Structure prediction request, 299 residues.
Amino acid sequence: MTQLILKDTTGPIVAYLPRSPGQPLGKPSAASIGVRTPADDSLASPQPATIDPVASVTNQDAARGTHELRFAAAPGATRFRLYILDHPSLSQPFYVQVADVAGTSVFLTDPLPCDIPAGAQFLGAALTLALSVAQTATVDTITTSIAQVEATVSGVTRRWDHEIRIVRQEFAQALTVPKLLKLAPEVMRWRSDGSTTYGELIDAGYEYLIQDLEGRGYEVTRINSPSKLNLALVKRIRWALLDSIHGPAHEDTKEAEGQYRDQIRMAEAGSRFWYDDADQNLATGRQNPSPFSTAWRAR
Prediction:
């Protein structure tokens, strides 16, 4: 998922250790991040990253399908961040995303995929780096900024790229997990193995949606009210899941693709769908950059 960072701000960059076969998740002991933006290239001079300090232990059992983890003391978790949950009874640790915190309880965006015994480790995983205003002074156009992350986990150094993009206005994710499950309850059945969280499904759907809209000539950070795209995003997630289950040639997959394309057509038909490039304060809108083409195929 490309992280959008607002122009003339300090970010920060927030990166996570990627899942990789044979390399289980773990809390990094050290990390650094190098950054290249249109205004600055510091890839060769990485800076130490801040590692989320949370390291707590649950004090009550948590049943499969529930959303709450309980602790003896508030663990200090941050809403919407990912955390690593681990216990000797688990085959491997996994990410959970925090939806809310209340006292000594942490509520998750996704139901737990298995029973979690008391004594499970709840570990901060976010690697963050504040940028300078100078680094975010120029908006990305054709090129995408990049952050190169290096982290040491259990004595093993891992490196990966974390895509970032400097934008005039944030493209706020308006679709929440409860809204997704209300609009498409079948997603619970299709996401049967629990390997991907609902939050990650939404993030992946946004990636597809952004690519599709940019292919249509839109600068997505100038779309007027991203909530207008909720239904299109839900249908894009359905299409992606059916494609992974049945393949692209299956009639259910093709039907889902058609529903998604119809929803995109309906959304972009509005005269205030996006903001005019000439409008510096993003105060007014205009028509689509081009008419909908029946030849266009969403990626």
Q: What stands out?
A: Residues 169-286 form one domain. The radius of gyration is 21 Å. The first strand starts at residue 3 and ends at 6.
